[in-house]
Amino acid sequence: MLVAAAVSPCPPLLVPEVAAGAAPELDPLRAACAEALAVLAEAGPDLLIVVGPADEGERGVFPSGSAGNFRAFGVDLGVRLGPAAPDDALPSRPLPASLAVGAWLLATADWTASPVEGLGVGEPLSPERCAEAGRGLAERAGRVALLVMGDGSACRTVKAPGYLDPRAEGFDAVAARALGAADVSALAELDAPLAYELKAAGRAPWQVLAGAADGVGLRGRSLYEDAPYGVGYTVAVWS
């Protein structure tokens, strides 16, 4: 059963070594993420599953010990999703960027509260399939926690990755309200085609969360909401 969840954006710029000189600009976001992870630890989960967007070929389950690296973003910095297996035999597939950022957050927080696994989900996954996947995750252990990685729209300003789209601010507001209030129904009803047009990478992971939390009655709390660099970022906790 799902007992807690944390929602975090997943820009590689969260990692100070990647952000370099711009690192201080996201210090408030990093602080909110740290607070969210503390809530997860307090829930005492038997298993933590990191869920994030993934490109084709990067989707699916990532067992404990899966490794990633930020070389593609200019920094040779390795991360690992939980401890390696006793024989140090690491899985062959590298973590997608979103799960690598999640692994970095967990390492920064010295996560030892539970074993950790990962799930990469793709944009084409329908809301119904997302909900089904979420229900499956919630059944993985008696006490399951989720760290849900995902950004809102990337179209909030003319300098945003997707340029300015007047629909972006409204989409992000609806998503942020739903995440902050643990509103499962509102998350499940997010417009998938619109999210795709607005480059909102968090849509599928958020709807996985909605499936996992359906009927559980968790309460939500918003810790951060902003759009630096023209991309919608939300941090929230459900407990």
Which structural class best describes the helix and strand composition? alpha/beta
CATH class assignment: Alpha Beta
State the CATH architecture: 3-Layer(aba) Sandwich
Report the CATH topology name.
Protocatechuate 4,5-dioxygenase, Chain B
Q: What would CATH call the homologous superfamily?
A: LigB-like
Low-confidence segments, given as residue ranges, are: none
Helix content: 25-40%
Query: Could you tell me the mean pLDDT?
Result: 95
Number of strands: 9
Number of domains: 1
- The end-to-end span amounts to 12 Å
The arrangement of helices and strands along the chain is EHHEEEEHEHEHHHHEE
Tell me the Rg in angstroms: 16 Å
Strands ordered across the widest β-sheet: 3-6-2-7-1-9-8
Number of H- or I-type helical stretches: 8
Description:
The chain is an alpha/beta fold and 239 residues long. The chain has eight helices and nine strands. The chain has a single domain, classed as 3-Layer(aba) Sandwich (Protocatechuate 4,5-dioxygenase, Chain B), CATH 3.40.830.10. Strands 3-6-2-7-1-9-8 form a seven-stranded mixed β-sheet, sandwiched between helices. A hairpin with an 8-residue loop joins strand 4 (67-69) and strand 5. Helix 4 (127-138) packs across helix 8. The longest helix has 16 residues, at 27-42.
